[in-house]
Amino acid sequence: MKRLPCAFLMLWGLALPACERPGAPGNAPLGLAPPLGLPPVPLPPENPLTQARVELGRTLFMDRRLSHNNTLSCAMCHVPEQGFTSNELGTAIGLEGQSIRRNSPTVYNVAYVEQLFHDGREFSLENQVWGPLLAGNEMANPSIGYVIEKIKVLPEYTGRFESAFGGRGPDVLTVGQALAAYQRTLVSGNSRFDRWHYGKEQNALTAEEQAGFRLFAGKAGCSACHSIGGKFALFSDNGFHNTGIGYAKSMGQPGRHRVQLAPGVFAEVEDKALESFEPPQPDVGRYEVTLDPADTWAYRTPGLRNVALTSPYMHDGSFATLEAVVEFYDRGGIDNPQKSPHLRPLGLSAEEKAALVSFLKSLTGDNVPRLAAEARTAQPAETPPEKDPASTYRRNP
């Protein structure tokens, strides 16, 4: 018998089940060409990107029943129309109105983030998704198994995991992989800045925006942390830095907080005025992960793409506008023993500050409306399971 080439055996010796083979509907690998200004999306070999996985993950992302009391979805803190964050909340609100101590980061371009959460405590999107699902003040599910058993009894998911994962149903691995697959498609580039800087379209930016970029990369020193490469720009060094904001809150330094009084109505109040009904929550940043004193009050450098859409800003949502952020960095942050050496008073003029803000507003990707609309194509039902999974679970004989 004629022997098959080794390369052929390597490809087919571990043959996939029929529903996961490349030719199966919905399971052909998706091509995810990076837009201008961004590198190829890192894809783990154990979780290939397929249409079936992406669509399943999108449904899970939008499903309120994934919270313990069936009211809170991922999309309610990462609102598609609000830059996949929440423009109305400085810090997120979890199950039954519980306050969360940090701002909801955007999930635009989250595929490029090396260490996830503001403190970098997780290392893959597949694992990260379980943090909010299980956190007592977020989606508050009592266990991994509880989430899985609930998904199993929801009719909208019947057969979908098996189809997307070669016969494998919902479990700790496939739930994470589906949600991760969807989030990796939220790639947004080809901004006006990209067309000017990488595409060499001379008129893609105004003169003020071009001046803002020169400040960003030069006098203002922003690119020391929000890095720009020769072929692409993530606008983040994927590092962790202490700006002094966490320090000031921990030390009880006077501050003000933006409070929503009604839809679209906000007021600035002294932080101390809120302490009687919402005491400040301890937060020492990355130190909680590494236990290294040098990491105290350090937080991950966020990417700046679509930053005009993702207010409020900083890890605690303490700045409502880009103008306020620029003013903060112009002052050189807040002094403390671990403050990043990159921060120093800048002495920018009013015109220079305005130019910086104009430049930042040029970083909005050209596919933002499409990605927000695609999120809403997933319309999971809101009918909860007839019986609580914990009350009906029986081990198969």
What would your notes on this structure say?
The protein has 397 residues and is mainly alpha-helical. It folds into two domains: 12-30 and 44-188 and 370-392, Cytochrome Bc1 Complex, Chain D, domain 2; 192-365, Cytochrome c-like domain (Cytochrome Bc1 Complex, Chain D, domain 2, Orthogonal Bundle). It is 29% helix and 4% strand. It contains 15 helices and four strands. Strands 1-4 form a two-stranded antiparallel sheet. Strands 2-3 form a two-stranded antiparallel ribbon. Strand 2 and strand 3 form a beta hairpin. Helix 2 crosses helix 7 and helix 12 (322-330) crosses helix 13. It is globular and about 70 Å long. The chain starts with 5 loop residues before the first helix and ends in a 5-residue tail after the last helix.
List segments where confidence is low: pLDDT < 50 over at least 5 consecutive residues.
Answer: 1-23
N-to-C SSE series? HHHHHHHHHEHEEHEHHHH
Q: Count of helices?
A: 15
Strand order of the largest sheet: 1-4
Number of strands: 4
**Gyration radius, in Å:** 23 Å
CATH topology of the largest domain: Cytochrome Bc1 Complex, Chain D, domain 2
- Classified in CATH, the superfamily of the largest domain is Cytochrome c-like domain
> CATH class of the largest domain, please?
Mainly Alpha
Question: Which descriptor suits the 3D outline?
Answer: globular
Mean pLDDT: 90
Provide the number of structural domains: 2
Question: What structural category do the secondary elements indicate?
Answer: mainly alpha
Strand content: under 5%
